[in-house]
Amino acid sequence: MPRVLAMGGEVASFTGGAAEFDVAAGTVRSMIRELEQRFPGLGDYVGRRMAIAIDGEIFQDADGAMLGETSEVCLIPKIGGG
Fold first, then answer.
1. What is the pLDDT of residues 5-61, one digit of tens each?
2. Which residue stretches of 1-82 are H helix?
3. DSSP secondary-structure letter at 32?
4. Cα(60)–Cα(41) distance, rounded to whole angstroms?
5. Cβ(41)–Cβ(35) under 8 Å?
6. Which pTM does this prediction carry?
7. Cα(63)–Cα(76) distance, rounded to whole angstroms?
8. Comparing C-alpha atoms, which of 76, 64, 62 is closest to residue 4?
9. CA-based end-to-end distance of the chain
10. Alpha-carbon distance values, 62 to 25, 57, 74 (Å)
11. Yes or no: domain 3-77 corresponds to CATH 3.10.20.30
């Protein structure tokens, strides 16, 4: 199962303090849906406020990115600016 690591932001407020958890998802899109089901509000928060890195590679548009059985997914707060 892919492993999700939250690297900051307000993720812990949705997960009851958990910063690492496994998901049964094959794509980032399905991972976000699963997060929303397990932790209401988290899927939306991740979609709007977090960047996603899969196995060390940061994706600009991760929705369709595939997750492998041993993938490590890092949720990183997006950097704002202009």
1. 998 889 999 999 999 999 999 999 999 999 999 999 999 999 999 999 999 999 878
2. 11-15, 28-38, 42-49
3. H
4. 22
5. no
6. 0.89
7. 15
8. 76
9. 37
10. 13, 10, 12
11. yes
